[in-house]
Specification:
The complex is a heterodimer of chains A (about 120) and B (about 280).
Chain A (H helix, E strand, L loop, with lengths): L1 H31 L17 H6 L3 H29 L3 H23 L2
Chain B lengths: L1 H20 L4 H12 L3 H25 L5 H22 L4 H24 L30 H4 L10 H18 L4 H11 L4 H25 L5 H21 L5 H24 L1
Helix pairs in contact in B: 1-2, 1-10, 2-3, 3-9, 3-10, 4-7, 4-9, 5-11, 7-8, 8-9
The chains are: A mainly alpha (about 120), B mainly alpha (about 280).
């Protein structure tokens, strides 16, 4: 499994860097634009407008993408582990990984229902 | 502009201190945001969860490269920490903020007490003796069919075989609930649980706990994100600051007298616990 562990380490490293870079760009644009981070109303996450906001260099797009990349990084790690254990024939461990992914899917449903 | 820089600087400080003292950033970020910047408690927890994921993912990659973290054990316990985090994330939106602040005050007081006790203990004494036993999960030839092992054997590491899996599972569930309610990584529960209850070496328990934090926090962060509980304007500068601080802290660790820092920090935690308790009492 050392190859899988090396792959997972790379996913975590690259995912974290991408997330931090996106958050850093968004923060610099936010601060440079003079918007107070403590403003009571922040723009909600709107996936439909992310591409246009990104092209217009709006800080919100970078911040939301950075947050999504942050949350997605450990989930990619679970998916890669599940796949790796499954390929190695370790069904119990692959099933554990799949169970975590099911919990994550339930979190998406539960979060969406209450939004 | 100043507020954004102050948030990043505060996150940087939390990252440095957290890294030097072996704490996740959450225990520092929630008080920083609520007491220091007046951010509502639930939003501070949402931001803290993001910061905790960033530091966990950055450190977990290194732990895996060094083969310190036990990925198999982590995957087993993650099922329970993630389930607890989902539950906690849902409950967090039902509880009054004063109750959450009261729980956080209790956590701060417990952390201060644990750090004080750890500072007086002999570090080497806490490591369990490793048995001279091959690692059954890794000893098979690469091309051979995996042997049928018990679950404990399948998640064993070199020199240890985790015991009391049921207790580990229920403790992990509780750690997940706590993480989601209070925006912390939950290492303060998971590390003693794995080390003292399950018999995992301290170094492996610490690294595996760190590996699990990202997934645990992600499960509840999804609920917070979709329910509008994460403020991107506060989360961005704070998370970048925490990441930079954790990087600097890990490089400073060898040159700093952590013992003195620990006692100073116990005082800060106790003071913050008192402020949180006052907030809880209204």
């Amino acid at each position: 499994m050392s190859r899988v562990e090396a792959r997972i380490a790379r996913i975590l490293s690259v995912g974290t860097r991408v997330a931090v870079v996106l958050l850093a760009i968004g923060s610099v644009l936010l601060i440079a634009g003079g918007t107070s981070p403590l403003a009571p109303d922040w723009p909600p996450l709107d996936p439909a407008s992310l591409a246009a906001d990104l092209a217009a260099l709006r800080p919100t797009a970078f911040l939301w993408l950075g947050l999504i990349a942050t949350i997605a990084t450990p989930l990619l790690r679970v998916a890669a582990s599940t796949w790796g254990f499954g390929r190695a024939g370790e069904r119990r461990l692959a099933a554990l990984g799949a169970a975590v992914l099911v919990v994550i899917a339930l979190a998406v449903v539960a979060g969406s229902l209450g939004s | 502009m100043i507020v954004g820089l102050l948030l990043a600087a505060g996150g940087f400080g939390a990252g440095v201190f957290g890294s030097l003292l072996g704490l996740g950033g959450g225990i520092l970020i929630v008080p920083l945001l609520t007491v220091g910047f007046g951010v509502p408690f639930r939003e501070a927890v949402g931001v803290s969860l993001v910061c905790v994921i960033v530091t966990s993912s950055a450190a977990a990659g290194v732990y895996l490269e060094r083969h310190t973290a036990n990925l198999r054990l982590g995957m087993l316990l993650e099922v329970f920490t993630a389930s607890g985090a989902l539950l906690g994330g849902l409950v967090a939106f039902l509880l009054p903020e004063r109750v959450l602040a009261g729980l956080f005050a209790a956590l701060l007081a417990y952390t201060a007490f644990s750090m004080l006790r750890r500072g007086r203990a002999q570090p080497a004494a806490s490591l369990p003796a490793a048995a001279d036993r091959p690692d059954p999960a890794r000893s098979a030839a690469p091309d051979a069919d995996p042997p049928t092992l018990s679950l404990a054997d399948a998640i064993a590491g070199p020199g240890y075989r985790p015991r009391r899996l049921g207790a580990g599972a229920s403790g992990s569930l509780g750690a997940g609930v706590m993480s989601a309610l209070l925006g912390v990584g939950g290492g303060i529960v998971k590390v003693p649980l794995m080390h003292l209850v399950m018999g995992v070496p301290l170094k492996v328990a610490t690294a595996t706990s760190n590996l699990m934090i990202g997934v645990t926090a992600a499960a509840s962060a999804i609920v917070y994100l979709l329910r509008g509980g994460i403020d991107p304007y506060v989360a961005g500068p704070t998370a970048v600051g925490v990441f930079a601080g954790a990087m600097v802290g890990s490089r400073m660790a060898a040159r700093i007298n952590v013992r003195v820092l620990r006692y100073l920090f116990v005082g800060v935690l106790a003071l913050t616990a008192a402020q949180m308790a006052l907030r809880a009492l209204g």
